[in-house]
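Appendix B, example 12.
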Amino acid sequence: MINTRVFGLGCFFVLVLLSGAYGQDKKIEIGSTDIAVNQYFKVTLTVENERLKNYSPFPDIEGFVKRGTSSSSSTSFINGRMTSSQSITQNYQPTREGSFNIPGFSMEVNGEQISVSGFTIKVGPAQQQQRRSNDPFGSPFDMFRDREEQPTEFIDVEADAFLALTTDKSDVFVGEGFTTTLAFYVAETNRADMRFYDLGKQITDIVKEIKPSSCWEENFNIDNINGQPVTINNRAYTQYKIYQATFYPLNVEDISFPSVGLKLIKYKVAKNPSFFGRNRMEDYETFYSKPKKVEVRELPPHPLKERVAVGDYRLAEKINSLELQTGESFNYTFNVIGEGNISAMEEPVVPTTDAFDFYAPNVKQDITRSSGRVTGTKSFNYYGIPNEPGTYELGDYFQWVFFNPDDEKYDTLRSNQTLVVTGESRKNQYILSNDMGSFYDGIEFKDNKLVGMNESSWMRIFTNIFIVMMLGLTAYMVFKK
C-alpha cells in the first residue's frame, strides 16, 4: 500500500526540482508562549522554495517532553511562478505549570545555521477541551479534525539493522597493523524509520572505550557518514562507517575491544494512520556491538628484534653523482616505501668510517590512509663527503632491516649504488686541520730557561717564618696563664 502522505511529499519534491527555486528562505518560528498544561508548545522549522534535505535535532527544553513531529507542505502558482513551502513542527508537552525561561538556540538547516533568541513560556492550569458537535451542515473536514483529537496509538517497528566492530586480522605480530572498523548496517528490507542522534558526542565517547592503550593509532578521520552498499551472507545492506583506524601493537599483549552502544532516533508509527493526524512518534533505540579480541604474537629472535619496523616495504634510492673527487660533497636519499607504521620508522644505522663523513639525515614522511590501509614513504636524505679515493659499495653503509609479517621473516633493504672516488687522500689534511688545544697555543712565545730565586723571594720566606713564630709564642703565653 502506498502511503498517501509520502506520495504527496514525493510529488511536491519533483515539482520543486522541475520548476527551480525562487527566493530561498529558512526560518524557525516559535508558537504561542502562553499555554495550558494540557496543551502543546510548538517550534516550527520552515523552508521556502527549497527542498528540506537535512536538519539538526530540535532542542531539548527543560520542563517539557518531546511529543512527536508533524510536517506540512504547500505549493502555489502566482503569475506563472511557483512558490513552495515545507514545514516540520516539533510538539512539546509541559510537565508542570509555571514560567520557563528558555535560552536561545540554533539549528543547522541544509548546512546553514538558524538562530533563535531566548524567550519565556508561561504554562497555566489545564483547560477543558471543547468537542465539536456533529453538525450535518458543518465543514466536511470536521470529521478529520475530530479524528485528530482522538488519542493515537503508536506501534514499534522492528529494525532490521545492527552495529558491528570488525577487524581485518584476528592475530598479528608486535608492530603489525590491523584495521578496526565500527559501522552501522541497515538491511535493504528494513522498514523502521531511523536516523543518527548526537553522533559527534557519541563517537567521542565510543572511541575512548575501544581505543587500546598499548597501540599506536592511525585514524582515518571519517568526516562524512555516507552509506555504501555491501553484501553480508547473501543479504544486501547499507554500511555506515562511524569510526575506522589502524592499530599497531607496541608489546605482546592481546587487544580486547568491549561491546559498545550507539543510540539512534527511531520512530514509532501510528497504528491507524490518518491524512491529517500525526502518524509517527519519536523514540530511541540503542544498538550494541559484540566484543572482539585480536591476539598479538612475539617477533622471531633477531639482534634488532626490539627496534625493527614491521610491514611490507621496498627501497627507492637517489644520488646526485656516482663519480666524485675527495672533498666533494654529495646527496644521497634512502626512500622506504610500503605499508606499515610509517611514523615509527627509524633511520638506517650508518657505521663510522674514515672513508666518508656522513651527516645526520633530513627526514620527511608522507602517509596515506585510505581503503582500510596505511601506506606511505619515509625519506632519509644524507649529506656526505668522501675522504679517501677508491670504489665503494654504498650497500656496505646503508642498510635497513625490517620484518615482513606476510612471509614471517626478516628482510633487509640495501643500497645498490656504487660510488667511484678519485683524488688525494684527505687523511693528512684532516690531522693538520685538527685543533691541538689551548695548551700549545703560546708555546713558541715561552722561554725555556730555568729561573732562580731572587731577593724578593727570600724576603717572603723569612716574613712567613716570623709570622708563624709569633703566633706560636702568643699561643704558649695564653696557655701558661
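The CA atoms of residues 30 and 43 lie 5 Å apart. The radius of gyration is 41 Å.
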